[in-house]
Amino acid sequence: MISRVSRSVPVRFGVLIAALGGLATAAICWQQVAGEQRAGLEDLERRANLLAYRLSPATLRALRLPEEQIAPAMADRLEGHSRLLGFAVCAVDGRILAAGAGVPEFEPRMQEAVMQAAQTAQENAALSRGPAGYTHVLARPVLDDQGSVRGVLVVLHDAVYLDDRLTRGMLRGVIWTAGVTLTLLLFSSGFAWALFERPLHRLEEWMRRLRFGAAHEAPPRGLAVGRLADESEHLAASFRAARSREREEAESVMRSERAWTRERLRAHAVDALGGQQLVVVSNREPYMHQLREGRPQLVTPASGLVTALDPVLRACGGLWVAHGAGDADRQTANASGCIAVPPADPRYTLRRVWLTREEEQGYYYGFSNEGLWPLCHLTHERPVFRASDWDQYVRANRRFADAVLEEIGGENAVVMVQDYQLALVPGMLKERRPDLRVGIFWHIPWPNAEAFRICPYRVEILHGMLGADLIGFHLQQHCNNFLDTVDRMVEARLDWDRFAADLKGHTALVRPFPISVQSWSEKGVAAGDELTGQVARLRQQHGLEGVRIGVGVDRIDYTKGIAERFRALDRFFEKHPEHRGNFTFVQLGAPSRTHIPRYRDLVNELEAMADAINWKHRTESWKPIVFLVGHHDARTVYGFMRAASLCIVSSLHDGMNLVAKEYVAARGEGGVEGEGGDGTSADGAGVLILSEFAGAARDLPEAVIVNPYDTEEFAEAIRQGVEMDGREQRRRMTRMRVRVEENNIYRWAADFLGALAHAHGKPDQPVGGRP
Ligand code: F6P
After folding, report:
1. Residue 460 backbone zone (phi > 0: left; psi -120 to 50: alpha; other: beta)
2. Is 153:142 a contact under the CB 8 Å cutoff?
3. What is the pTM of this model?
4. At residue 131, does pLDDT exceed 80?
5. Residue to mutate, 360, 363, 443, 556, ligand 1, most ligand atoms under 8 Å from C-beta
């Protein structure tokens, strides 16, 4: 269909150009013919005038004679020759008194001109048409000395030749017009075909071949539009990269008959690390000590990054370098800031980095979370970039890099740098130890180049990241955005086929690694009767007995779309009052970054919203929203996820959002607690309502996908989720669970470590590197 339409384009273009050219030619020819006609007529008039002028004195003399002598007196002067038909002398009443031989037959045509000339005493000329063609009549009054009209002298010309000239001119015009039109039609259609149709046709053919596997064929040459040529190069490269990855994934799936487990990762890591130490560097520490009533208490921070990486280090052992942010962190670590973790069952070392208050303010709250965070999340929050924050960011990054180098000493190591707080660390490490294997994983989205370019320190950040051997994102889209950003802002050589950037001779590969979770049972959460009892206690404690539960688990952050979620719940209860009293939504919200006014205000705003909605819809024994602000441990989160037949993840923009995967993982494990008569929690059912703007939506398409900004659609999704029948819930949930179990956090780490092993020092390795 498309090609049929496009094939007629050159013809249509040609017809348009030819029609315009033809019209212009016809107009020019017509002008020319009309001009020639005018000139011919003027010439004829001039000649008739001259003849009449010359004959006038003789005519006057003859008119003074008696009428019967006039003809003899003029006899030899009235005959014509060639185009001059002859003369006539008429009386003032129009009668012919004397005339040349052929003149009388034209009498009817002369009459009007003669009478006019006699009456007005003015010369009169006319072109009249008869059966034989045009005749030109000039009637000149003959005046006596007193100025009275004595008669009229007529000069008659045959003007047929003007007619012939007109016909010839018109014919010439038609031939020209037809010639020009035809030529233009041929040339412009041919031109359009050669310049657009043929290259596009070739592009279409090439795309078809690309689709069916000829991935290594270069795009056709000669595309008229340069940008289109560039884009097709990129398209081909992305396609080749995707194909290659697909093949490797397929091979990898075929190879892996067993699921990825802690043990399997450990064995794989031994290979991938080649005897080197694994070092993770992040801002957030996996275990934090806070003072509670004067005594240090262990806290596990609410962080997707910690959820993902703690199991990896537990499996592989090694070192985790992170900011010691807890107020009891110093007293629980040794003199060099190290502590074996998890404290109850040590598997690896946590090295805490100490930052001054100014450093923490500028680096963490300022540049990282008021600058880069809103820059990378498209949530209409304006980023703030202060030079002083940037200075602290550089200084803090240097501290993390120094801590890593200090810990590894002269040894070799594989370093996995985590996230946007530490963008400069890869470059800093490589500057001092080019032999280290360094990867960075960016846990948040990477925006498009246009959005990123507003950052005043964009070049420094890109240089820092490009120091890594491997740069990971959750989604291919983020990889594309990143490479495009590098392309536009840094003098690096890009290899779109391998998805790699070369800066000053160092190659960084860019790959997607969608992050995931471990199973809940590995986290030591309750099971069986213990879980049933825990769920019953939670229900009782929060007044949730006998109702169906929905749950949301988030850091309190404007990117998480909690306000949009509350708004949709409000609308849901407005539109469906029949659900009042039988469905309650529990929101677990961990306060976060509260030194930043926007975050502090958000906690208050959300509390006020929840209060207002509760006030509007509540009954004596029921309220729609239970908003629990605080840090909730894994057991509590799991308890709620097991109890809830519905979970809402409504991020406005998110790299992945592991809460979605945690809920899916929670719905398949043992333990029966289907209280409240919902009957779905007990048997692997449950509904996930998931924002289309969270990376997880790519991995979990069976969720009920919503646009959190669309309150009506969102409220309808909640209704759909609350009313969905058990079979449909289980059908969807089973598919999601199988995927999350297969692609768990161990597989993510194995993929990343494998790719890092291949990436380092082997710039010619093909795409992939999956185990
Ligand atoms: O997932 C993105 C992320 O910023 C992680 O880097 C971080 O651990 C988590 O969110 C929580 O944020 P914060 O560490 O600032 O509390």
Report:
1. alpha
2. yes
3. 0.69
4. no
5. 443
